[in-house]
Amino acid sequence: MARSRLRGRALRELSSTALVATLIISSVSTPPANASVSAGELVIPGSAWAPPDAVNRAPVGGPPPQGAPRQEVNPQAQRHDAEVARDWCGNSDYGTKRDYPLERFPISDRSELLVNTANGNVVITARDLTIKGTGQDLSLSHVFNSTESFDRSAAFDEKWRLTTGADVHLDLSFSNGVVLRGPSGYCVMFDKNGDGSFRPAPGLDARLRRLDNGGYEVTWYNTNERWTFNAEGWLLSQADRNGNTNSLRYFGNGDLASITDSQGRVTTFRYDDGGRLTAIVDPTGTVAASYAYQDGRLASYTDRAGDRTTLEWDTGTGNLLALTDPSRGRYEFMSTEYGRITELATPGPNGPARTRFDYDSQDTYDVDKTIRTDANGHQTIYEYDRQGRQMKATDALGHSRSQTWTANSDIAVTTDGLNNSTTYRYDELNNLISTQLPTGATTSVGYTDAAHPHLPTTVTDPQGNRLSREYDDAGNLTKIHSDGLDVDLWVHTYHQPHGTLASRKNGNGHTTRFEYDERGNLTAEIPPAPMGATRYTYDSLSRITSVTDGRGVRIDYAYDKLDRVVAISHDGRVLQTMDYDGIGNLTERAVPGVTTTFRWTKTAAASQPTRVERRDGTSTEVVTYGYDPVGNLTTLADGGGTTRYTYDKAYRLTALADPFGQTTTFAYDDTDRRTRTTFPGAGTQHNGYDNSGRRTSLRVTNTAGTELFAATYSYTRGDGSDSDQIQSTTIAGVTTNYTYDSLRRVTRAGSVTFGYDNANNMTNRAGTTFTINPANQFTQVGDQVNEFDGAGNLVGSQNPISSFTYSATNQMLEGYLNGTRIFDATYDTVDQTQRRRITETHNGVTTQHVFQQTALGLTQVIDNGYRTSYTRDPDGTLITEKAADGTRYNLITDHQGSVLALLDSGGNLAATYRYDTYGAVHTNGSAAEDNHLRWLGQYQLRGGLHLLGHRYYNPSFGRFTQPDPTKQEPNPYTYANNDPINNSDPTGAAVNSCLQSNLGAISVAGGSMISMVTFVTAVTTVSTLGVGLAIGGFGVAIVGAVANTPPQEACG
């Protein structure tokens, strides 16, 4: 499954960061006046938009008209019965559903194109409006289905539909069941039981029931969201588990008239004389989207910023011929008479990139196999069962992976290219109850709450450690209990009537409280003292306009009409500005004194950067990127020179030609795991894996085959059973055994022991005690007494005497030790991800580090004027280095990206690096100081701090020096959930924990708004190209739903 994550990965990462910023921070405050602007100061861009304070709260329209919503005509039959309905639904495969095999082609940050490779249906989704609500947002899109065939939808022409209103309805005309037409156009059948109840629709994870008033309700299992329909099938409302509701009203002819969102604001809809939708008007009276028609067909649509997408049609067949996005990217479609795609041309770096789809049957309802030929001419073969679910994928090298399905369209078994299978089991209600790895480790989930039969009440890991969960009547999470420790880890209470999180008490009994305005917007988060409260203000569309942290420092945010962050300000001074193109790509980012510009190209994978230019008034730096038509990175040129990348037909990297004159080659097994990295003239790194895909060995040999270095990793417990945590390692001949407690925290590593409290704070490390205050701050470590500010930043200590200062956006700026300045830093963004310069003094020696980031991570470091250059593969893994004195090294890395050794060009071990459990580095070898990209492949300062993305990490404490910016971690300072052996957090913002992936974000469940809002303090950069991002190409992938489990390779 690893190859599926390579396609367009850099832009997904970059775009997702921008999207997080816009969704989390949401819109613009009234821009502060800019009376006089001196040289070097920034102004809020003209694209900033402040919505009017007054909003429409007067809905128009009323109940839907008598009679059923407009029904699509089944072209295959004229009679309406359950058999026909099931056949129609089973074969239409319109829209998107979790079991559909969909290939994704992003168009913009608001639109994407998907191809159902089983039937050739093209789905285009375009987001028109999103308004943050209480409990649930109001999100409106329009969706295209190329193979859909009916007279016209309720809102548009025959192939476009709105994701709400009459286009989402129940068809009650069948005698033995009810058909639901979903927002994207999908069709599912709820068969009727003899007693009048309904059986679940396969693949939907929802139930249908008849209400006492004659209407119907669809309830979604995982969220308890409820969609209500009247007795004739009209959609009336959508409510979350707490009853926060978006309510619909209609005109007398059945057109959607207005939607009242969960905060009482009204969005309205306009139509032409033919009943076609012409505009969506948001609650402030601003046109959020408009639509134009030609010859009865949708010809263009325009977003709130005035950016237009145009459409071209074949007037004979009614098929879509072309779509041109707001940045003039052109997508062309060659289709059969009935709309099945045969060739798709997407914008490419050197002209159109053409992807062809060949089907083994001309009947769209009877496809067993599809051959996809990509823009490079490489073929992938997809095979399907009779329901159109993908069963197998074979890449251009003949390597296959497969999967089987349950009757409910859940994944049952996945099998990799080496015939290793992961098994998923479900109960009679189709809840996932266990996942078993090929090596035997099994995670199980229990469902014992009769009132909420689809909400997990227990999760048990392969070692038998169990966490229990409890819920209130609405299904909000109220408690997480550790059975092993017999302690409540989290206890939640909720405000009514909105069901918003009121308080959260941790395992130590300390409580964080949350306050809201009357509409349900979070206004304050009040943690235990001495941390200060964080406070929020909003505009009329519930977009955050300011955040005031626990120090009392207020940051203001400005956004464009599409909710993209365009400025960040403090005390009337603009700290950062951002500009975007018409499809949401960041084109310019500026902080006082530094401007960075971005150019982009389209590939089949995504929009990807081609040129990033940094200017600071005295110098200009440029990084350029090249790609093949499907999005594989082919060149990267930075201050160290040009690196070239070569791939095989399955898009696995086979060669990396660095700027230093060396070409490193790579080999893989049949399931795409890298088995060999060969450094010419020096030697080879050999990687071994177990059947679950976890790396279990690493060997380094010279060209003569002599072993120079070795490491092994074992997941086998003392009783011989398989675990999902490493039980022992042997690295360079030194064996370390590990033990863990019932919360999966490492308690012993060799002879070193660790202790923790019930709130996940480390309390003892190798005999050194930690004193923890109610805010989870480590106020004393041994004899060192620490001090924190109201925002949670470490600001000083006694024994030794130190002090640190921070910017308004919580960047560490200066540090002093015993009165001597030991640290100062500048940044290219308002967060800490883009460190530009750090000057540190360690043991009396002052070093100035200048960093150059790329989309793959840090690649250039200039220390006191001397440059060290690195190359990375498209995943960001370090490969080679050219030191400041010109010496070349090959980097030996482990499964977490940590550098274990340097292999010189003559095949000698020039240095080795040994890490203790929490990342303290012990070096050996004369060349060890030539490299400071070490633990996790990230930079380590001479003073010991690791630069981990959003935060600084102190391995001596085993903790971050600042709280988690996302507020998603169980503890704001803890590193990797206190299991650095199996988990890592190279970005300082997210732990790749297997348990947390399976269980969910346990610290904020039931109060998701908290995590969404508070990350604003970290994602104020709309980030950049750097800090471990990766670029890759397109590869074969099994498409479909793997139920609630992370890929195992991401967990160790």
From TrEMBL:
Residues 54-90, 673-696 are annotated as: Disordered. Keywords: Repeat, Signal. The keyword Signal applies. It comes from the Bacteria. Residues 684-696 have a biased composition (Polar residues). Residues 534-678, 726-981 form the Teneurin-like YD-shell domain. InterPro entries: Rhs_assc_core (IPR022385), RHS_repeat (IPR031325), T6SS_VgrG/RHS (IPR050708), TEN-like_YD-shell (IPR056823), YD (IPR006530). Residues 1-35 form the signal peptide. NCBIfam families: Rhs_assc_core, YD_repeat_2x. This is RHS repeat-associated core domain-containing protein.
